[in-house]
Design a protein that fits this description.
248 residues, binds adenosine-5'-triphosphate, binds magnesium ion, ATP hydrolysis activity, ABC_transporter-like_ATP-bd, transport, ABC transporter domain-containing protein, P-loop_NTPase
Length: 248
């Protein structure tokens, strides 16, 4: 399999802005790290504050790496130039949709192109069905929807923007097991249909080992281990072993 994601010496430093003084570094962020990935579903794990969301934002281009640090290379074949191929779905997906927008308007915003008006309604209904939602939701506002429904709308929106890589940041944390199971099945189907890659940021090692083929472990802002899920039991890292032990 070909590497589709390559990180070369990426780092991120956060600064405290100070009036009349030079800026001051804040603890946290990410130390320079490099890895590459050929597996289609990747997990990013580590304790709270280890840098998972920072890494995800760098991959998504939401945060810029430090000046002079390396780069994120995505090898996803021919893609529309003007679009971001990476879309992030946050844990707080409820606030991800403008509360004044109907489902139809929220999804319409993700479609670009000349024939937007003509094609869009059909496109929106089709994608709603594909994420397991009914078109009856079209004129509903977010407050009338469940968390699970909003999450599916966020997924539909990412697909409509023609993103190829979907990053889920703790997006499964608030769902119960049955709903996690349903969501993972849906994601597997969508992945096949739209040739997607997934990055799952999570505390939940059980979900990660079930769903992901490769696991990236962060510790205090550095890369602790990159390991195939099938080899996790052979980890050489005591930190990773402790995370495994904590979840058994
Ligand atoms: N915008 C920011 N400004 C300053 N510091 C930040 C910022 N974002 C993250 N940090 C710091 O960088 C470190 C890593 O944060 P990050 O949010 O990436 O961790 P995380 O692994 O996603 O944690 P959690 O599991 O709690 O979501 C933390 O010490 C955090 O305080
Ligand atoms: Mg986080």
């Amino acid at each position: 399999m070909k590497n589709w994601l390559v990180l070369e010496q990426i780092s991120k430093t956060y600064y405290k802005e100070k009036l009349f003084k030079s800026k001051e570094k804040i603890d946290g962020g990410l130390k320079p790290l490099s890895f590459c990935v050929s597996e289609e579903i990747v997990g990013i794990l580590g304790e709270s504050g280890s840098g998972k969301t920072t890494l995800a934002k760098l991959i998504a281009g939401i945060e810029k790496p430090d000046k002079g640090s390396g780069k994120v290379v995505l090898k996803l074949g021919e893609l529309p130039k003007e679009k971001n191929p990476v879309s992030m779905i946050f844990q707080d997906y409820v606030s991800a949709i403008n509360p004044e927008f109907t489902v139809e308007k929220a999804l319409l915003e993700s479609i670009s192109g000349k024939n937007k008006k003509v094609e869009s309604k059909e496109k929106i209904i089709a994608i709603l069905n594909k994420v397991g939602l009914s078109e009856e939701l079209l004129d509903k506002k977010p407050r009338k929807l469940s968390g699970g429904q909003i999450q599916r709308i966020c997924i539909a929106r990412s697909i409509l923007t023609e993103a190829k890589v979907l990053i889920f940041d703790e997006a499964f944390s608030s769902l119960d097991l049955v709903n996690v199971d349903r969501l993972l099945e849906l994601l597997n189907n969508l992945k096949k249909e739209f040739n997607l890659y997934y990055i799952v940021v999570t505390h939940n090692l059980e979900v990660a080992t079930y769903f992901c083929d490769k696991l990236i472990f962060l510790k205090e802002g550095h890369l602790e281990e990159v390991i195939e899920t099938s080899r996790l039991m052979h980890t050489k890292s005591s930190y990773v072993q402790a995370l495994i032990d904590a979840q058994i």
